[in-house]
Amino acid sequence: MGTRQQNLTPAEHTTASVSLQVCAVIDETLDARSLVLDVPPALRERFRYKPGQFLSFRVPLAGKLLTRCYSMASSPLADALPKVTVKRVDGGRVSNWMNEVQVGDWLEVLPPAGHFCLDPQADTEKPLVLFGGGSGITPVFSILKSVLHSSRRPIKLIYANRDEASVIFKDELCQLIKAHPDQLHVVHVLDSVQGFLTDHQVRHLLRGSAGGDYFICGPGPFMDTVERTLLAVGEAAERIHVERFVSPPDPDELLAEEAVARAAAMDSQCEALIVELDGQQHEIACKPGDTLLQSCKAAGLDVPSSCEEGFCGACMCVVREGEVQLARNDVLTPKELADGWTLACQSRPTGARVRLKFPD
Q1: CATH, domain 259-355, list 3.60.20.10, 3.10.20.30, 1.10.10.60, 3.30.430.20
Q2: Where does the record place the 2Fe-2S ferredoxin-type domain (predicted)?
């Protein structure tokens, strides 16, 4: 059992990340593994998570510190420790690196983030319909296990894969079906048998599930097909939740983008940055060129944040007054942007007065 501590210099080790040790490795399929992380008592509150959230990992490769997000397949209600599942991607630098991790290795991890979560006020009488494609099963599996643990809400899982051998969590799913036969209904869609999921198939699979809550994660075309069909049959957009992951640029590319965005914002002078946080209002200073997040941190405000690179969504906030310039966005949907949401780590004020509100 070898131990491999990431050799990060003090400059590379971000204040948000911590080292966690891998305490178990589970071979799920030929090209997917689950890593269970040991969270010491002192960090358990910091790593408390909601079903459907993800962890971000900082991985040193070829002299660079690369960041990737992996959803937790564990349930905070049913599992003692967080577990992420990583599927190898052809040419994927980090996914291949993660699939070589062994028990005892140390990984650099950011706290949980993400908004692909059930509304705690959701009507538990309405059906919950989960669509997972390939390794996209991980966040919906976390939600599935949590709902089974906490309520009698009916659940339908539509799970698409290449073939039977590529079905992640197959045995665990079989056990859950046996334990909850009246609550959980699972439909497997295999490319090798039925072909890729079509709009017609989605319509058929949705029968009896109208008016539910829908969670979708998987390859882009798979998610597009499901979302398009749900909207076409009249399901409300606010009840459709889609989790899309992108690989962020390498650090040198991010630094170049940051320099351009900062230079463009240097001429803007924000005289009043007002931040609504946890029911309190704060008026803080804003140095020209700084992001909203940098200004909040400089003022000592403990606002939510994680990756600080524009792809995790932890620092989402609403612009209630004034205007900001969003440099990079891999998270927010067009509707969220239209509703005034922005990313504090990527936004800079462009007017004299800006008011923000972070979610309670």
Answers
A1: 3.10.20.30
A2: 271-360
